[in-house]
């Protein structure tokens, strides 16, 4: 540590001497840029990349392919963030439009990474997804105050990594006994953010970036009207990291269900639109109906009944007590962040989606979901999985009770604080529980028995689980 500190001090002294000797430094940068480049926060960012970024890159070079490609983009995003930090020290704080333009280079790199997860599912989908989700941590640089709608920079980095950790853990579990290079890559990715980026932000920007009060004013391109006869501009691009998708207000949606019934009753003209049933329309007088049901009609009825009506997707707080997450399909970024210990979460009919619950809640119920992932911190009462298929549940805090009922395929990830949880299973199969096994973040997998032996002994039945050879 002392030798490293001496080297940094010598480098700083050499730069100061170069500044005092002439107007241009040895690097060819103007005085102001050279001073900013020698700022302690910028030098600390270089140390961050030299320690954690180099380890992350070395692990990716052993794997190559798409993993190496996405690693280069992650490091490119960090390089862009360094340039933005230098720019912040030379520029006055911009308005919202200027801030979006300022963050555009970083956003472009993030969109490149997200594009790699689209289309045909890759063999390294979990690698790509964990790397793409992790880049949202770099948005801490957009924090402008407590009213900006973001968490504090340190908390934002930690929360963003929790979203990426779901897929990062999948990499660790999948390759722990197959290829240690992938395990090293997953660990290096986590260390780049925790403790790497988190400790950097904590040391230098705990309250967000500090813009220059005497710097140059930010330049924002004014909107120009198109010339006459010019074609209309293209539609806006899809929502990116820094522009959350707007939600349609409930007041603009048409009323459904019982609300529509009561509205019709209150209008006073309830029978409007009803048709009069004549004698030939009654069933007993129709000649085209017989008591014999044909085979084709049977098949039509059975096929139509096999499809259940799916309601509209929901993610809302009902009566201030219950979060309803229903009929979500293909949504990987569902988040509930404004919750408390008196509220419950009910997840129903979701497919191929991921929900993150950031905070302590009273109860969590997952019902009739398929290929659903749920990540939560703390639960007061219990987490229940009912009538599901292929779900994954990760507890990052504590959970006194976890129950699995009538479920086929369930992966439970427990933290150190939740190892004392009571797990109850009934009419379920393929239940695996993964627990942390060491300080390096490794996971140990344990399968829960689904078969039991009942023996009548001493006037009562004794039940013991069937032991498997791999246990």
TrEMBL record:
GO cellular component: cytoplasm
GO molecular function terms attached to this record: actin binding; adenylate cyclase binding
Record field: compositional bias (Pro residues): 224-239
Gene3D superfamilies tied to this protein: 2.160.20.70, Adenylate cyclase-associated CAP, N-terminal domain (1.25.40.330)
Composition bias type Low complexity, residue spans: 213-223, 240-254
Pfam families for this protein: CAP_C, CAP_N, CAP_N-CM
Disordered: annotated segments: 213-258, 278-313
Stretch forming the signal peptide: none
PROSITE patterns noted in UniProt: C_CAP_COFACTOR_C (PS51329), CAP_1 (PS01088)
Family: Belongs to the CAP family.
Domain C-CAP/cofactor C-like: 312-448
GO biological process: actin filament organization; cAMP-mediated signaling
Chain ranges passing through the membrane: none
Coiled coil: none
Name of the protein described by the UniProt record: Adenylyl cyclase-associated protein
Bias kind Basic and acidic residues: ranges: 278-289
Organism: Hibiscus syriacus (Rose of Sharon)
């Amino acid at each position: 540590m002392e030798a490293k500190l001496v080297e940094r001090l010598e480098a700083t002294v050499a730069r100061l001497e170069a500044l005092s000797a002439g107007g241009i430094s040895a690097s060819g940068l103007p005085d102001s840029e050279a001073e900013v480049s020698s700022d302690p926060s910028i030098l600390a960012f270089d140390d961050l990349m030299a320690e954690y970024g180099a380890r992350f890159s070395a692990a990716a070079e052993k794997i190559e392919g798409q993993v190496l490609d996405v690693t280069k983009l992650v490091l490119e995003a960090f390089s862009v963030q360094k340039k933005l930090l230098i720019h912040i020290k030379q520029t006055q704080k911009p308005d919202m439009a200027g801030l979006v333009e300022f963050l555009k280079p970083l956003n472009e790199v993030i969109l490149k990474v997200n594009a790699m997860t689209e289309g045909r599912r890759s063999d390294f989908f979990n690698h790509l997804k964990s790397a793409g989700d992790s880049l949202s941590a770099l948005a801490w640089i957009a924090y402008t105050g407590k009213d900006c709608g973001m968490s504090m920079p340190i908390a934002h980095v930690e929360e963003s990594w929790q979203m990426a950790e779901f897929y990062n853990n999948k990499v660790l579990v999948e390759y722990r006994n197959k290829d240690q290079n992938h395990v090293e890559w997953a660990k290096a990715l986590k260390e780049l953010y925790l403790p790497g980026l988190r400790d950097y932000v904590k040391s230098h920007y705990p309250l967000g970036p500090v813009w220059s009060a005497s710097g140059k004013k930010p330049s924002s391109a004014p909107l120009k009207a198109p010339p006459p006869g010019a074609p209309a501009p293209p539609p806006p691009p899809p929502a990116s990291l820094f522009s959350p998708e707007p939600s349609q207000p409930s007041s603009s949606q048409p009323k459904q269900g019982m609300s529509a019934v009561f509205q019709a009753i209150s209008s006073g003209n309830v029978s409007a639109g009803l048709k009069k049933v004549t004698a030939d329309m009654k069933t007993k007088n129709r000649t085209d109906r017989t008591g014999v049901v044909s085979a084709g009609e049977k098949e039509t009825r059975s096929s139509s009944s096999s499809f259940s009506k799916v309601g509209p997707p929901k993610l809302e707080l009902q009566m201030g007590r219950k979060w309803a997450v229903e009929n979500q399909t293909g949504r990987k970024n569902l988040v509930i962040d404004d919750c408390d210990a008196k509220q419950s979460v009910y997840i129903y009919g979701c497919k191929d989606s991921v929900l993150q619950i950031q905070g302590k809640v009273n109860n969590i119920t997952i019902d009739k979901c398929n290929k659903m992932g749920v990540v939560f911190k703390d639960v007061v009462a219990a987490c229940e999985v009912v009538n599901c298929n292929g779900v994954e549940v990760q507890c990052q805090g504590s959970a006194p009770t976890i129950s699995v009922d009538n479920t086929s395929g369930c992966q439970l990830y427990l933290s150190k604080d939740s190892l004392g949880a009571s797990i109850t299973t009934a009419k379920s199969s393929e239940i695996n529980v993964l627990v942390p096994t060491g300080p390096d973040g490794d996971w140990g997998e344990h399968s829960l028995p689904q078969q039991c032996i009942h023996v009548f002994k001493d006037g009562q039945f004794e039940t013991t689980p069937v032991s498997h050879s791999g246990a």
